[in-house]
Structure formats: C-alpha cells, structure tokens
Design goal:
By secondary structure, the protein is α+β, with helices and mostly antiparallel strands. It has helices at 2-27, 69-99, 107-114, 125-184, 192-206, 273-309, 552-559, 573-613, 617-652, and strands spanning 37-43, 47-49, 52-54, 58-65, 211-216, 219-224, 228-232, 235-236, 239-243, 251-256, 262-264, 329-332, 341-346, 364-368, 373-377, 382-386, 391-393, 396-402, 410-414, 439-442, 452-453, 457-458, 473-478, 483-486, 495-499, 502-506, 512-513, 518-522, 525-530, 538-543.
Amino acid sequence: MSNIYSIAGSALQAAQVGIATTGHNIANASTPGYNRQVVIQASNPAQQFSFGFIGTGTQVASVKRVYDQFLAQQVNAATSSKSQLDTYSTQITQIANLVADASAGLSPAVNNFFSAFSTTSSFNRTDIISKGQTLASRFQSLQGRLDEIGADTNGQITSSITTINGYAQGLAQLNDSIQKAEAGGAAGGPPNDLLDQRDQLVTELSKIVNVSVIQQGSAYNITIGNGQPLVLGSNAQTLQATTSATDPARVEIAISGANGSSIPLGENAIQGGSLGGLMQFRANTLDTAQNALGRVAIGLASQFNDQNKLGLDLNGNPGGNIFTVAAPVVAASNLNTGNAQLTATFAPNTGPNTGVAALTGSDYSVRYDGTNFSITRLSDNTVTPVGAFPVTVDGVVFNLPSGTANANDSFLVRPTANGASAFSVASTDPAKIAAAAPISTSVPSTNTGTGKISEGTVNSQFVQGSLVAGSPIQMTFSSATNELVPNATLAAYPITVTVNGAATTYAAGVNVPYSSGATYSFGGMSVSISGTPKNTDVFNVSLNTNTVGDLRNSNLLAGLQANKGLIGGTASYTDAYSQLVAQIGNKTAELQTTGAAQTALLAQATAAQQSQSGVNLDEEATNLLRYQQTYQAAGKVMQIASQMFQTLLSIGG
C-alpha cells in the first residue's frame, strides 16, 4: 500500500514541477533573453518481487532550458554586424546631408567667388574681397560642423567604453554565481535563469562590439574585437578612453595595465557593434572628409596666392597673399624619448603635379626604427624610406632641422587637416588684387618690318623685380643670320625657343634663331614673335607701368576655377569637392543597402533561435492542461489508495 502512495506522491510532485515550470515559461514569455524550460523526468528504480518488477513512480531529473549555442552565436554575430552598420550609417548620413546641401555646400560658394572676376572694365575688387570672405565662412562652417561630429563621435566612444566595462563586470559576477550555484546544487542542476541572464548580457555586449565566447567549464571567457580578452572567468578587464599620443582631440581605446598604466589598442583592434561602427566611421569617412575639404581649401588658397603674386596690384606693386594657407599639422608622439623636431611644409607649386596639386588628402606617420626613418601614407600604408632629410612625398616636404630621434620615436603629419578651418581672407584691401600682368611688350615705331610681339605671359619661375623701369629686355633682329640678338639684360637668361611644340634651349647670351610664330621663354617670361621683321628691328619686354584697366592676371585668376590644379592635375576645386560628395553618397547608399540585408539576416537568425528556445504560449497552454490532468490522475490514485487502506482497516477490525 505504501508503494502506491509513493508512486502517486511522485506523480503529484512531478506534475507540480511541470505546472510550475510551465507557469514560469508563460510568465517570462516576453522577458528578453529568456529560454524556455522543460522538465526532464525519469522513472524511479523498480522494486523486485517474486513475480517480477513493479515500478516505484517517477522523479524529476532536472529542469532544462532549451538552448542552442550555435543559434545563439549566430544571433549575436548578426546583432553585432547590424549594430555596426546602423551606427556607421547614422553617422555618415550627417556628413552626406552636409556636403550635398545645395545651399550650404561648398560648390555654390566657390562658383560665386570666381564669378566676381569680370573680363570687362567693370572689374569690382571690393566684390571679390566680399565673396572671398563668404567663401572663407563656408569653409569654416563646414569644418566646424565636421568638428562637432568628431566631438560627438568621441563622446559616443567614451560612453560605449563605460557600458562595455559595466557588462564585463556583470559577466564576471555571473560566471562566479553560476559556478557557485552549480557547485552547491544537490542534484547538480543548472541555474537556468542565471545562464539566461549571462547569455543576454553577451547579446547586449554584441550590440556594442564583436564578441567571441569560449566556454571553460561552466564559465564564459569573453574576447572582443579582434581577440582582445575582456572577461576571464570571474575576472574582468577594464577598458579606458584615452587621448591619442599624437592628437589631443582624438579619443582612443586602451586597456588597463599594471600600476595604473594603460596599453593603447590599435585603431582596428575594435571590430563590430556600434563601437566598431564609430571607429570605422571616424577613420574611413570623417577623417577623409576633413582632409578632402582641407585639400580643396589649401589648393585654392595656395594657387590663388601664387597667381596673385605674379601680377601687379592697383598701386603697381607685386601682388601678395589674399588668402591664409594652413600649414601641415605635425605632432610628435608623447611616447617619444628623443628630442627630434620634425617639420612639414608644402612643396612649391612649380608644375601640373607639384606642390598642393600632389596632395593626396592622407595623413602620414613618420617613424624611426633606431637606424632609419620611414614615412607611411596612412590611407594605403605605402611606405617611403627616408635616406636623408629633407624629403618630398606627395607635395609635402618633410624635414628634421634639429634634435636626435631615439628608436621607436614617431610623428603624425596631417597636411590638410586644418585647411578649411584656417582658410580666411589675409588681405581685405581691394587694391591688393593683382589684376594686371607684370610685363608689357612693345615694338618701337622705328621698326621697318612687320614683326609683332604678343602681350607676353609669366609663370611660377618669374621673379618680381627682375624687370625694372627703364631697363627693358630687348631682342634685335639680325637679317644676316636670321637671329634675334639679346641685349645685356636678356643675356643673363637662357632662352627656350618653341616651334610647333618642339622646344630648344639656348645658353645665356647666345643669339637664337628666328621663326615666325615661335615662342621665346626666359626668366619665367614667354612671348611670341611673328611676321617678317627687318634688320635691326627691336622687340621690347618691359616692366608694366600702366596697371589701370589691365586684366590679364585677373583673367588668369578667374581661370583657376576651371584649372585642373588638384589630385595630381586631374581635378578642379569643384571637381575635387564633387568627388568627396560622390564618395560620401556612395558609401551612404552602400551602408543602407547592406544594413537592410543585415536586418533580414538578423530577423532570420532570431526566428530560428526563437523557434527552438522561445516560449510558444499555445504550446505552454497545452502543457498546462497535460500537467493538470496528470495532477488530477495522480490525485485519483492517491484517493483510491486511501480507500483501499480504509477497506483493509475495516476488514481487520
């Protein structure tokens, strides 16, 4: 009789556990990270009798959560990728809206500035200065907004690090609690709710950074990014937001070391999640946009200044700088142990792909290995060995004027980083616009032939002051030799004669052959002579002393707008800016498309995981009825056993 009571009691107990577990599932159907639990039953050992074995009921072996580690890892990986794409997309959209704005973008301001140059006598110098100031304001406002986005990115990185540290501490504590719970459990059953909490923390962490889980016993060892350990058993590492060794405005990530020290992690050490998206956005888009905008500003200011210097202003003086050109930013690492002083300047603009035309928009790392220096272009990691300073790389002259470097000393050089923020009007005096050319040409009335000389042009080799009033350069035609004979002033220069595109250079002081329509170049000046001169006919090149109404240099200033003066001589200012707009726009569209695909992948992974581990209320309702019926049936067995016991007692009485 006691065996029947025991069997019924075990059935009642198992049904109670089943009802409680089902109720727990129903209660947590909407709890994030909850995995449904099932009761695992086993029959009790049977009791042997002479006629055979009779069962002794059931027992609850364990309450097991339905959990698939592979599916969970898929969800975490998809979550990390989606979070990274969403964060990158959100950040880059700000820049896309900024640079592509039809009214707030750069192109309208550039076009408006150059439209102030008139080819007529109504040339308005004041309007040029005014529109130059408007252009400067546009550069500065664009850079100011990029700086704000950069500061916001730094803030989000710092906040993400704080959150990661909180999750790491929570995971370490849960590891400890789970180990203690499993060690202290009478039947060794798993602490399901603690396991769920830990797995949910891993999922939340994967939203911020890529997570890898290595299970060791009952503990999780967590690595993030490209393998940086974060949690080892019940111990958690601490990440820090630190200032870059070479850029005080840049927040970087470090891990706490011994004695309060910190070990910087590389820019690419953190991958995935919102933090990885922030790091990628800053390195691949924000820095690129700042440098590209700065390159346009430096290119325009430098080339405009150079051309203005080749002309004469309203007072007849050589032109000067109209715009301020930002110098390259050079920062020595605060980890350097030597006292070397590195400098960087822009190479002169002497040709189509020199000076600012050769700027790439990249930053550069200069390192000393103890024996040699090397310069690395950070945009593509191209390394240039340095034999001796100074050395020119991509339009930038690197020099080491003083000090001594020690092994592993490094410098960061950002040639165009401050280009837009420093762009300003250096001279607000309208008279300083050098509209006139510095030279004039003439033929005296005493010439008897039909020879003519062009107005003449100058290039970057021309030196203001090489011509003085009253001392013209003269070439006298000799019919006997069909040559042009230089005077004493011209005899100081070699002369290059270009006929039908073929150029021949003659030594200084040497007579040069005459060919109608040929171009004669000397001392940065070029003239064309044509016609049929007669013996002793003279051709003069003089200092321009009548600058009023002369717009020859003004026309060249205006022509800079269409000049392919950037990106190796392949792009104008608006072309270079348009390339930036297109690059940002294409990347934004790419992220949106990839993000939509990743959203679908996450939904699929989540659906697969939930189909196995999620709570189905219809299924739980069915289980509830089943356990209820089991409970009722077990109670009936108990009732019958009690009646049988009473019958036996009555017979015995």
